[in-house]
Write a structure and sequence with these properties.
Layout lengths: L1 H20 L5 H17 L7 H8 L5 H12 L2 E2 L9 H6 L2 H7 L1 E7 L2 E6 L5 H11 L2 E6 L2 H18 L7
Parallel strand pairs: 1-4, 3-4
Antiparallel strand pairs: 2-3
Helix pairs in contact: 1-2, 1-6, 1-7
Length: 170
């Protein structure tokens, strides 16, 4: 987790600031969620280190519908259900799932210099900058639900395990 701790911290900090700035949550809710996030990070539970998850599922001060509606209506970002998408074969092998979990983002297709990327953390500039640097080229961004992204990442991880030679699974 130490390799991704910096991006996890930056991604969540900037997400929280943007949620407050756009009046989607109150500063008090952010402070409570941050305390819980630091606790999770100290426990070393990488997949659970999500401010968004805490705000939606633990504190129940935000809904995915409200953030998705905001992004579609106010930012013009497209929305996608990854359960209807088959990840490109080359990405399935190349992508590091740890970086996807750390940023709640997954590249799912590529055509020439265009990358198609779905994220739950679009409101975090750190996440978008991370993937722009990581992928190079142009990115077409989509927003998705946490369940949709989780389902895709778990599906890809399970496919990797299934095709890994005996004893080489990691």
């Amino acid at each position: 987790m130490s390799e991704y701790r910096s991006i996890i911290m930056r991604a969540n900090r900037l997400l929280g600031a943007n949620l407050v700035e756009n009046n989607l949550i109150r500063i008090e809710d952010l402070e409570t969620a941050n305390e819980r996030l630091f606790q999770i990070i100290e426990e070393g539970t990488e997949r659970d280190a999500s401010l968004l998850h805490i705000l939606i599922n633990e504190l129940k001060v935000l809904t995915e519908d409200s953030i998705l509606s905001f992004l579609v209506d106010e930012r013009g970002v497209g929305i996608i259900d990854l359960n209807d998408i088959e990840m490109a074969d080359d990405l399935r092998l190349e992508i590091r799932s740890e970086s996807c979990w750390a940023t709640w983002t997954v590249p799912f297709d590529r055509e020439e210099d265009f990358h198609y990327v779905a994220t739950c953390y679009y409101m975090s500039d750190a996440v978008r900058q991370y993937w722009e640097k990581e992928l190079g080229g142009s990115i077409v961004w989509f927003v998705t639900t946490m369940k949709s992204l989780t389902d895709m990442l778990e599906r890809v991880e399970n496919e990797r395990i299934a095709i890994a030679p005996a004893g080489a699974a990691s």
